[in-house]
Design a protein that fits this description.
homodimer; mainly beta; 13-stranded antiparallel β-sheet
Chain lengths: 264, 264
């Protein structure tokens, strides 16, 4: 018994530190495969033989655009310690590096209470949020067929051609197929799930991610993930996206920052 | 004519993608070598043959504690594109990986004006800030002999045993040797220059960095760097540090986030 998402991100051992994967076109975003989906797939390989189950610190550099279909992940184990185990995981297609990563995994205590926790972001209650896709008889396109979104109406003006005036989006995400509770791999998808926040300043268009680093901070509870994405600067064609994911019990479960290029 | 810092972080080509380095005990922090110093040294190797001069997105995983003295950096070039060039740079000592990194470099326009910029942090004027070290006749110890700090009095209570009650530090940093204007390598040191922000909640002691990712956002002007470091959560022995560096002309020049372990 596995979910659609588990099958789409599955890795098959093909040798020592070598895994075969089948990249699934269902996780595409108007053409290119979704970065979060690729990260989830790489993480399955990186953690396949790890002594630690939780990807605490994960940095990904997006080099080329892979096609749906077969690809390979090479995993190089760099250290296996009591607190953390670090590996490099590299996605390869046509003998070229598509996506490279360094992953430090740890073992988080699922019932740990924070010693200190900042204020959660203010996000409208989910019943006040809007779903951005017009569901057609064939279902929504690409990633939105797999991931369900709700947008806080304060930050979703770009959907109606009325951008907020600053790079910020807030709302909720979960996998459309249920039950599919948040786990490390769903978190990887969610950290890159929102549209580019530069939509909020009217800069529409595909905005390729160059690098994304995310941190798993706690084991998420079942249910929707609340998400806030904010940027500090858009300059010289580059922008940052800073992401927080909070679970349904109010725990900070992941943080991320990515650097991306403004779409043209 | 080179500065002390340039000599301490110099790399010497020893083959194709292989560089010899001499780790300098002057950049130690009560024993271990400073993470920012190690990052600066790795970056010199990563950028030595890069078509792009600015380390835009740089992720470092700290695996082992190196000794001062000779070590080697291996650089694997992964992609050389018009917008970004990505390389892996690995610091090796005694045949073990000490520090591993993925670096995506770009070419920033030194006179670009931001399309959008968030509010700068409020930091006390430098003349109201305090220098934390009692200068002895031999000068301050370790890293503080190389890097000069000023602490905003609102967040420096930990110096007097009166922690602020939240993980935050603000102030200014620059290299002690002048002139040594901020450049990508000084930024690397500065992103990791402040003491662990958990000092602000009374958790003293050495707090090892597991992973640090930083982004160069603009070419810094000469002068002091204003720095703000804040954390979102301290839990289960892990804490995050989110860093912003602003130059003397009010530009956001670097952002960083690290995951570290609470000292015991």
């Amino acid at each position: 018994m596995s979910t659609t998402f588990e099958r789409a991100t599955a890795v098959r051992r093909a040798g020592d530190g070598v895994y075969d994967v089948e990249l699934d076109a269902a996780y595409s975003m108007g053409g290119p495969l979704h970065g979060g989906y690729l990260m989830a797939t790489l993480l399955r390989a990186a953690l396949a033989d790890s002594p630690h189950p939780h990807p605490v610190a994960n940095g990904f550099h997006f080099l080329r655009t892979p096609r749906p279909g077969p690809a390979r992940v090479r995993v190089e184990r760099l250290k296996s310690g009591r607190t953390a185990a670090t590996a490099r995981a590299t996605l390869i297609q046509d003998d070229q590096v598509v996506l490279d990563s360094l992953v430090s995994a740890g073992t988080l205590d699922p019932v740990a209470e924070p010693d200190w926790l900042g204020e959660p972001p203010e996000i409208a209650p989910i019943e006040k949020c809007e779903e951005p896709w017009t569901l057609t008889p064939d279902g929504p396109p690409g990633l939105a067929g797999q991931v369900e979104f709700r947008h806080d109406p304060e930050t979703s003006g770009w959907l109606r051609g009325e951008p907020l005036g600053r790079p910020e989006m807030r709302g909720y995400v979960r996998m459309r197929e249920q039950p599919q509770d948040p786990d490390p791999y769903v978190l990887a998808v969610a950290t890159d799930a929102m549209p580019p926040i530069v939509f909020g300043i009217g800069k529409m268009g595909w905005a390729p991610t160059v690098e994304l680093t995310w941190h798993m901070r706690a084991v998420p509870a079942p249910g929707w993930l609340a998400i806030r994405v904010v940027g500090r600067m858009v300059a010289d064609g580059w922008f940052d996206e800073d992401v927080e994911l909070w679970d349904s019990t109010g725990r900070l479960v992941a943080q991320a920052r990515q650097m991306a290029r403004v779409g043209r």
